[in-house]
Amino acid sequence: MLFTILISAGLLSQGLYSGSLEPVADTLHSVTVTADKGVLVSRRDTLSASGSFTVSDILLQSPGLHVGDNGGYAGLKTVSLRGMGSAHTSVYVDGVKVGNMQSGQNDLGMLGVEYCSDVVLDYAQNSVSFNTARPSFRDIPVSGSIRFSAGSFGTYLPSTRVDFRISDKVSLSANASGIFSKGDYSYGDGQRRTNNDISQIRSGLDLWGMLDEGDYHVKAFFNTAQRGTPGSIAWPSDDRQKDMNAFVQGRLTNRFSPLYTLNLSLKAGYDDIFYTSVYGDSEYGQTEVQLNTSHSFQITQGLKLSLAADLQWDGLNSSNYNASRLNAFSALGASCTTGRFAADAALEFNMAYDNGAQARTAVSPSIDLKYTVFKGFDIRSFARRSYRVPVFNELYYAGYGNPELKPEDAWMTDLAVQFKKVIGASWKVDASLDAFCNWLTDKITSAPSADDPNIWQPYNIGKVFSAGYDAEVGFRYIRGRWLFDAKGQYTFQSSVDRTSGSESFGQQIPYIARHIAILRLGLSWKGWKLGPFWQWRGGRTDGYGDLPDWNTLDVEFSKKLSLKKAGSLVFKVTARNLADCRYETVSGYPMPGRNFIGGIEYSF
To answer: Residue 141: how many CB atoms within 10 A of its CB?
Structure first.
């Protein structure tokens, strides 16, 4: 009975009816409990992935994100939204969650962004979602592109994608890409970062199809890499790492009647990491299986009810310890729209059961409100509880894990005003102001153990209060074949340690910048494009003291040539960190100074 309830409750967890297979770059079929599950509207932003070389290139467009980067193409790359921590920030690929139950830190470097259409930030769900670009055919059954880029530090980035139109309703995409980099670069007073090389190959297949009242998407992905792990500049190493990631996932959306929509997704994946170290070799193999389902019921034109449930199993076999976990999720939601006002409310249930341990459960309410003052001007807010169960390393790692850890418990609130205006045929203006407050209790931190001060263990001794605001203004001007756009963003974020008795009480938590400013400009004419991008981050700490402020300036220049029926060519050059700022996003892991990358893409 419980399983039946969870499954039926979950047929909502994937998304509302999309109805077509048109090429889109700003829709998301299933991301946790959101409007696509029919439960919560959420507060979202969409980042364009067009022309980006790396995941960091995309994510740094948003001042609300903290991107942890250990430097170079081989360095670990993580993301945290509004000070919640990388383990508390969910990552999705085409609507299905990317899991890492071992450490809780998804290495975003494994994701290929060459053919990613956009990245969606969901502030209410505290998630970052990567979406694959759908095929866009002209009058030919086969299309695609070939790219080759090269740059500083002996870096080469080849990639290719081919799209096949099987029928009017079915299309298939195949892609492959690689990263090959020597990775060594200088920093400081002539010092050099070594053992930072990487050889990585990624490949994937995507099958899209249309139904009479819905669509489906099947995705297969494989990634393998060998890389150096140089450690921090204080403790350099010659350690090596081998990665392997593979998964198959599918999503189905179908509208059976005007009243009822079904959504279903499945995933099976396996990850393997092998470390070679002077302290001994170690290997971690992770297996993941997901079933996500949702039902949506359109009761009246302005009232919708929804029921969602997900099941996920994770297993870890390693040279250090073994563990497994069953996660169950269900949600009941309602959405009401009347005139200018819209309200969404949901009640979620989460359970995590580890073999041989007591189940951890939580009930999480959420509400989302929106009021349209007039066309183009909206006021919206949300409040939601979110919690994170400790990952395997925090609980079971030999000599470190603490099986008594409690889940991190968070309350998130947000209030935003958004304005958009089109003026005549040439101007488009948009602006927003977004204030937020997050309370995080039972934060998992590490401290010396009572039995041996030389051994650190994780404890629930932390509390964090994070509050701030995002301000954004942008405009676009089009005249003839000229296009100019500009966007300025500023984020103030006070993420303060409120742990009683903590030595850092009242101080900013590590690495979260108090001030972030971003300015992006774009100018294009007859296929020529020029795009400067400047960012500044200040008011950071690493837990031991203040860190230097830093800013970087990147400039992108490209030209597109039309070859008529033969396709098109795009030439692109990007200068990064043009002012040669020496900075770190993680202490002890210096980022590259001034560097360049350029390439050519042929589309047919």
So the answer is: 11
Alpha-carbon distance of 255 to 558, in angstroms, equals: 43
Average pLDDT over every residue of 524-543: 93
Of 499, 493, 500, 496, the residue nearest 508 (C-alpha): 496
For 416-429, what is each residue's pLDDT tens digit? 999 999 998 899 99
Which regions of 449-576 does DSSP assign to beta strands (E)?
456-479, 482-497, 515-525, 528-538, 540-541, 546-547, 550-562, 568-576
Structure tokens at 132: 């694959």
Amino acid at 122: D
- How far is 401 from 513, CA to CA, in rounded Å? 29
Between strands 408-423 and 427-448, the pairing is antiparallel
In our burial notation (b when 16+ CB lie closer than 10 A, e otherwise), range 380-404 reads bbbbbbbbbbbbbbbbbbeebbbee
Instruction: Please tell me the distance from the alpha carbon of residue 223 to that of residue 111, in angstroms, as a whole number.
Output: 8
How many angstroms separate the Cα of 109 from the Cα of each of 37, 54, 203, 351? 28, 8, 14, 30
Q: What is the dihedral of CA 469, 62, 365, 508, to 10 degrees?
A: -60
Exposed/middle/buried for residue 424 (C-beta within 10 Å: 0-12, 13-18, 19+): exposed
Query: Which tens digit of pLDDT belongs to each residue from 211-238?
Result: 999 999 999 999 999 999 988 888 888 9
In this structure, the strands spanning 214-231 and 236-255 are: antiparallel
The CATH superfamily label for domain 2-603 reads: TonB-dependent receptor, beta-barrel domain (2.40.170.20)
What is the number of residues in the chain? 604
Query: Looking at this protein, which amino acid is placed at residue 467?
Result: A
Going by C-alpha positions, the residue among 456, 317, 466, 460 that lies closest to residue 399 is 456
* Count of C-beta atoms within a 10 Å radius of residue 581: 16
Measured between alpha carbons, how far is residue 366 from residues 234, 317, 351, 443 in Å? 45, 36, 17, 21
β-strands 341-354, 360-374 pairing: antiparallel
Question: By three-state DSSP, how is residue 11 classified?
Answer: coil
Closest residue by Cα to residue 185 from 139, 161, 153: 153
Residues 149/157, Cβ–Cβ less than 8 Å: yes
pLDDT band at 15 (very low <50, low <70, confident <90, very high): very low
What is the β-pairing status of strands 427-448 and 540-541? unpaired
Exposure string of 330-339, with b = 16+ CB inside 10 Å and e = fewer, is bbbbbbebee
Dihedral in degrees, nearest 10, Cα atoms 399, 401, 403, 406: 150
Band of the pLDDT at 454, cuts 50, 70, 90? low
State the CB neighbour count (10 A cutoff) for residue 465: 16
Distance CA 545, CA 539 (A): 11
Distance CA 339, CA 498 (A): 42
Domain ranges of the chain: 2-603
Burial class (CB in 10 A: 0-12, 13-18, 19+), 454: exposed
Please give the share of the chain, as a percent, with pLDDT higher than 90.
61
pLDDT at 19: 31
The one-character DSSP state at 391 is P
What per-residue confidence (pLDDT) applies to 448?
62
